[in-house]
């Protein structure tokens, strides 16, 4: 995920705390609802509330437990990053101890579920720590979450295959989850031995472990294969290979496509790519060069993240950046970050961005973000149909999903996830079953038009 819905109001907040003057109207989003919030807020800190919602949503598919998340939410001090770390690290340790106890007692199901939750809580503990890139907890927590996650998936009835796929200048870590149908008797899929396969990637701060709970369980339950991956700038590659985001995102996706197409349990004609959050830009970007995909799903559609960020900044800050005044821009950002009560979503956005782009320089980060963009010419290079989603209360990039759908023309299938059904947040957060119903249902229709490989 990237930036909460409340980030859309950040410009006004920054003006107040920094004394800047910004009279620019915020561009309206034609799909935004009239509600001030689409979800009950678990913290008075808007960014904490959003990330708590993100981790609470993992309880839908065994990645968390509601009582454990709500207890943490009750104890975390709004805006206090150490308090956030302390409560989630505590949960990671305690639930991890339960997992080990269950495993020693050969209570395999309890062990698996506890390892999954412990892994999630260690990832949560890490979430706001990237402002100090030398903080050793960034690495120790990730080692703990990875160990717990690997123990959990290896206790599944059908464990995934973990692979390191070679790209030109890096390797792509990926988990291939085989189909694990949960279909009624007599309703089994009739795909043969070679099955439809969904590649799933996330974005600015997401990790592939969470994708198992949010997407892959829905995919495999339908009798399809699912593979998650991470590329440069994303958590594992950033830590283990020290590589930030690259605009040539097809270089991360093509090795995954190569891998699945050579598997005997994959139908090479029915391989689709899903991208969530910033991945809603990365997935179609990859498809401009990778033409072996049967379909792309962009959740939510995103054309230009830099544009969205700049729309939320005060005028003075924007002018410093667009004029190329690197020193002035960095000094302005540093001034804001030094304010004790600076909004968490601004601090985290800069901290995570500089970390993910492998720099300590805010100007270099935001310039790098600008290298990722889609326009009509680039979108015309996509050869397959594209599902473009929008959330009714998603304030990340208002209007961009609709713009993407218009630019794609007949290749696009647009769908608005609605607030009244609890699906209007960024990436339909908390309503993953609705997301799967619409996106995987559409993919089923697309796949039906493809000749089966036996």
Automatic annotation (TrEMBL):
It comes from the Eukaryota. Transmembrane segments: none annotated. InterPro entries: AB_hydrolase_1, AB_hydrolase_fold, FrsA_esterase. Residues 221-429 form the AB hydrolase-1 domain. The keyword Hydrolase applies. Residues 1-19 form the signal peptide. GO terms for molecular function: hydrolase activity. Keywords: Hydrolase, Signal. Belongs to the AB hydrolase superfamily. FUS2 hydrolase family. PANTHER family: CONIDIAL PIGMENT BIOSYNTHESIS PROTEIN AYG1 (AFU_ORTHOLOGUE AFUA_2G17550), DIENELACTONE HYDROLASE DOMAIN-CONTAINING PROTEIN-RELATED. This is Alpha/Beta hydrolase protein. It comes from Fusarium solani.
């Amino acid at each position: 995920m990237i930036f909460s819905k409340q980030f859309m109001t950040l410009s006004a907040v920054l003006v107040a705390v920094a004394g800047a003057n910004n009279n620019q109207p915020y561009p309206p989003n034609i799909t935004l609802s009239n509600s001030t919030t689409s979800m009950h807020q678990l913290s008075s800190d808007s960014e904490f509330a959003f990330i708590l919602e993100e981790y609470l949503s993992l309880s839908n598919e065994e990645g968390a437990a509601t009582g454990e998340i709500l207890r943490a939410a009750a104890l975390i001090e709004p805006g206090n990053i150490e308090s956030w770390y302390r409560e989630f690290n505590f949960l990671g340790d305690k639930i991890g101890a339960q997992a080990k106890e269950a495993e020693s007692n050969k209570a395999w199901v309890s062990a698996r579920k506890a390892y999954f939750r412990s892994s999630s809580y260690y990832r949560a503990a890490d979430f706001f720590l990237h402002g100090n890139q030398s903080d050793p907890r960034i690495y120790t927590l990730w080692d703990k979450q990875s160990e717990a996650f690997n123990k959990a998936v290896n206790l599944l009835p059908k464990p995934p295959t973990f692979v390191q796929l070679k790209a030109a200048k890096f390797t792509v870590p990926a988990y291939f989850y085989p189909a694990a149908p949960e279909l009624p008797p007599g309703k089994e899929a009739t795909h043969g031995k070679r099955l439809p396969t969904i590649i799933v990637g996330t974005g600015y701060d997401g990790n592939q472990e969470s994708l198992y709970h949010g997407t892959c369980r829905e995919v495999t339950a339908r009798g399809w294969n699912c593979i998650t991956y991470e590329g440069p700038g994303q958590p594992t590659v950033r830590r283990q290979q020290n590589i930030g985001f690259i605009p040539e995102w097809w270089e991360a996706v093509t090795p995954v496509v190569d891998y699945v197409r050579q598997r005997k349990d994959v139908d090479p004609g029915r391989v689709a790519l899903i991208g969530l959050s910033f991945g809603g830009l990365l997935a179609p970007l990859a498809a401009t060069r990778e033409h072996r995909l049967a379909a792309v799903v962009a959740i939510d559609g995103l054309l230009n993240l830099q544009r969205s960020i700049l729309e939320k900044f005060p005028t003075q800050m924007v002018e410093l950046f667009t004029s190329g005044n690197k020193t002035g821009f960095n000094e302005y950002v540093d001034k804001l970050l030094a304010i004790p009560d600076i909004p968490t979503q601004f601090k985290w956005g800069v901290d995570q961005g500089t970390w993910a782009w492998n720099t300590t320089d805010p100007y270099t980060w935001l310039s790098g973000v600008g290298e990722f963009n889609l326009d009509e010419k680039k979108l015309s290079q996509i050869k397959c149909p594209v599902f473009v989603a929008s959330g009714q209360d998603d304030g990340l990039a208002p209007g961009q999903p609709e713009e993407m759908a218009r630019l794609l023309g007949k290749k696009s299938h647009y769908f608005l996830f609605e607030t009244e059904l609890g699906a209007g947040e960024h990436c339909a957060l908390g309503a993953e079953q609705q997301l799967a119903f619409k996106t995987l249902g559409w993919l089923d229709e697309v796949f039906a038009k493809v000749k089966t490989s036996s």
